[in-house]
Write a structure and sequence with these properties.
Blueprint lengths: L1 H14 L1 H9 L3 E8 L2 E8 L2 H14 L7 E7 L1 H12 L5 E4 L6 H9 L5 H7 L15 E4 L2
Parallel strand pairs: 2-3
Antiparallel strand pairs: 1-2, 4-5
């Protein structure tokens, strides 16, 4: 039985490898990753609501019908609510940029960072107003993090 469970765990870890990478990148502290009722159970605590949402976005990308073989219990750290006001005040290191016609986040990233692939920095800093990195509109004011 243990061999079958280990095999199932490895299969599901492979299937949801991108989710597990996102969990690591977002600093989610894992409490459990194991098989329960023949499903992969992932339980952890995210440092912010934004980090939790990114994990769920990745779960939906990996498998829109994830409920068939995954149980994800991601909570938000109690410290996140206290830390959020300080984070939104900023340190003055971010800049503001008004989107112009023809702009893309990659183009803006190239302008500010010298590297178009840094566009996710800008997207992540503006998730309050951007639902998709490919959907920016002229006139939007974006925060450009340092």
């Amino acid at each position: 039985m243990a061999v079958a469970t280990d095999q199932r765990l490895n299969e599901l870890k492979q299937k949801y490898a991108s989710v597990l990478r996102t969990i690591e990148q977002q600093g989610v502290r894992l409490a459990n990753v194991h098989i329960e009722n023949n499903k992969l159970l992932i339980r952890g605590e995210a440092p912010s609501e934004d980090a939790k949402n990114r994990v769920w976005d990745q779960i939906k990308l990996a498998d829109p019908s994830y409920s068939a073989d995954l149980v994800a219990d991601i909570s938000v750290s109690a410290n996140a609510a206290q830390a959020a006001p300080a984070a939104t005040q900023g340190t003055g290191s971010g800049r503001s940029y008004t989107v112009k016609s023809g702009d893309t986040l990659s183009k803006i990233a190239r302008e500010f960072y010298g590297d178009a692939s840094e566009y996710m920095k800008i997207y992540n800093a503006n998730r309050d107003q951007l639902s998709d990195p490919d959907k920016i509109k002229p006139g939007q004011n974006l925060v450009i993090p340092a």
